[in-house]
Specification:
This protein has 214 residues and is an all-alpha fold. 51% of the residues lie in helices and 0% in strands. Helix 3 packs across helix 9, helix 6 packs across helix 8 and helix 6 runs parallel beside helix 9.
């Protein structure tokens, strides 16, 4: 009995010093994710949910999301075709990329978001097209927080958030550029209508003509 106790006491320091098993690197974990291709017949909602639950966003997710926002998702049968379409539009380059195993970086995401929604770009981003300058432009636009790195990987939910912010910003920009019709406040479409009908909107008579016209 004393001998057993002595053995346990002697081996205790060795067991205590044994290092824990190393964890797999994030890039390896991302590469081992099971990714199911989204093909014809899958709904847009199912595709969006698949992106949002992804722990590490992949290029396939980025291609899907870009075409979802453009309303072109169901026009292409496979993710490969969707990525080819996004590349043809100049939003990204997936020629030598395994879209199901390659995580998409923050820099590539912001670059795609700015290109896809035609948002403002810094001079250096216009000249070089580098992801690092895309990140700076994205910070200035408010798409992401400051202090992040272009090489950071993001989750599917973060990918959706960045692309949604870009879409919202583009919509606001379009609304700013719209010319408002000042005559609509008075119930008219043109100055002529208001001039000939100062008391109110022009009314249509039973013959289909505005009142006051033959």
């Amino acid at each position: 009995m004393k001998r057993i106790v002595f053995i346990l006491l002697a081996t205790a320091p060795i067991l205590a010093q044994r290092a824990p098993r190393p964890k797999k690197k994030a890039a390896v974990v991302a590469a081992e994710q099971t990714v199911v291709p989204v093909a014809t017949g899958d709904t847009e909602l199912a595709a969006m949910r698949a992106i949002q639950v992804r722990g590490r966003a992949l290029y396939a997710d980025l291609c899907r999301l870009v075409l979802l926002q453009r309303g072109e998702f169901n026009q292409y049968k496979t993710d490969a075709e969707r990525c080819q379409r996004a590349s043809e539009l100049g939003f990204m380059n997936t020629k030598d990329v395994d879209i199901y195993k390659t995580p998409v970086s923050l820099g590539a995401t912001t670059k795609t978001a700015i290109y896809a929604h035609n948002l403002e770009r810094s001079l250096m981003f216009r000249l070089t097209g580098f992801s690092w300058y895309a990140l700076q432009s994205a910070e200035a636009l408010g798409l992401i927080e400051e202090g992040m790195n272009a090489g950071d990987y993001i989750s599917g939910a973060e990918l959706v958030q960045i692309l949604d912010e870009a879409a919202n910003l583009a919509e606001e920009k379009n609304n700013w550029n719209k010319t408002e019709n000042p005559y609509r406040d008075f119930g008219h479409e043109t100055y002529e209508d208001m001039y000939h009908n100062p008391s109110g909107p022009a009314k249509i008579n039973p013959q289909g003509n505005k009142q006051g016209t033959p």
